[in-house]
Amino acid sequence: MKNSSYEIQLRPTTVADLDVLFEFQLDPEGRHLAAFMSQDSTNKEAYLAKYTRLLDDPTVNNQTIMADSVIAGSIAKFIMEGDAEITYWIDREFWGKGIATTALKDFLKTETTRPIFGRVAFDNFGSQKVLEKNGFVKIGTDSGFANARQTEIKELIYRLDL
Hints:
The protein has helices at about 20-25, 30-35, 45-55, 100-110, 125-135; strands spanning about 10, 60-65, 70-80, 85-90, 115-120, 135-145, 150-160. The protein is an alpha+beta fold. The longest helix has 12 residues, at about 45-55.
């Protein structure tokens, strides 16, 4: 789908994409906003092992977000405690350009599991807007230890039913 300045496409994530996606999630500002990351998220070997396993998991729908012909991020559906959840990561170079909103809109056309939940740090206003623009409704809050911040923070819980 075309947004203001990029042709956005989703394609299944491959092992070859993981090196680029690993580098994206090392960005300090991105890590701060994402907040809830695994303890070993800066360990490339652990990252590659984990995500290579997830690529083979039939309950996970991993897609790579392409902006023109460049990897701009990733988006996925996974199951946590019996609920379908959405996660996405956009390289900082592409923030504020509508790419996450467009990618999520496109993703939700083919990933039809409902309800589907999104969780976002209380101060990640960009991600909150992306979810809301795609019909997600805030249904509650939770708190938990955010590895990227090394402290407990509030998390907003969103849900999409349609």
